[in-house]
Structures are given as structure tokens and as C-alpha cells.
Specification:
By secondary structure, the protein is mainly beta. It is about 0% helix and about 55% strand. The strands form four sheets. A six-stranded antiparallel sheet has the order 1-4-5-8-9-12, with no helix packed on it. The radius of gyration is 23 Å and the shape is elongated. The two termini are about 35 Å apart. About 5% of the residues are buried.
Length: about 160
Amino acid sequence: ATLGYLDSEITEFLIQDPSTTTPTLIDDSDNRLIRNAPEKNFSVSFDYTVPLSNSGDLRLFGMYSWKDDMFTEGVKDGIPEFELDGVESYGSADFSLTYTHNTNSGTVYAVSAFIQDAFNDEDGRVTYQRNIAGVFAFGFMQPTKLWGVELSAEF
């Protein structure tokens, strides 16, 4: 299990004053954000292996992880009611079941079934969002609930 807490802030961010032609620095820290730094996060997992009598084993793995809200841009968008510079908190439950077989020649075969974000019924999740100008923004969607089967061989 893991637990994370990040207490961070920008105390000073000096930039050239755009209102004057004389070289003058002003503190712009009130308009700055720390990117991709959720305040809280945690995960818990289990990993259980059952030896089988036929030179193989069965492994069950599961993990739940959660991340707090976070900003994806380093500058505030100026329109807080739209929240165009951040990503909402989210959690994900991931599981896999793997059968591994060891042959006499040393070759190892495995088949694994997995599911990521098992309990999420949404079509996707915004993982990055950026304000372009005013209320215009774009973001990247990441698919949720991904599942599949993997076959592998080690020789």
C-alpha cells in the first residue's frame, strides 16, 4: 500500500512587467499553478500465487489506486467557474489472473487475462486539459475499462 501527500505552493515567480518598457520584475506567483501534482494519492494491492502440481502456478493480482484533483497547466485560466486548467480526482481498480507453465526444456509459457479500471462505466476520462483562450479549451481523453488477454513465452 502507498499513501502520498504533497503540500506545495509557489511562493515567488518573477516575470517581466508587461505594462512597462523599463526592465522591472513583478511577482506573478498568484497566477501560477504546480502541474501534475495531486495533493493526495493512495494505492492498495494484493498479489497471491497458488503453485499447481503440473509445473505451473496461478497468480491473482489486484490494485486500487486514487489520485486527487490536479492542474495540467502552469498558469491559471482566469475563469474559475469553468475549471479549464485541471483534471478531477479519479480512482481505478485493476485485476489480472495469470497461469504460468514451466516446461522441462526451460521454456516458460504464460497466459494472462486482465482488466483495468474494472468498475468504471464511463467511456473515457480527461487526463489533460488546456485552456487556449477564454472559454475555449481542449483536452485528451483516456479510455477507461480496458481488458484483454496476453500470451507470452520465455525461451
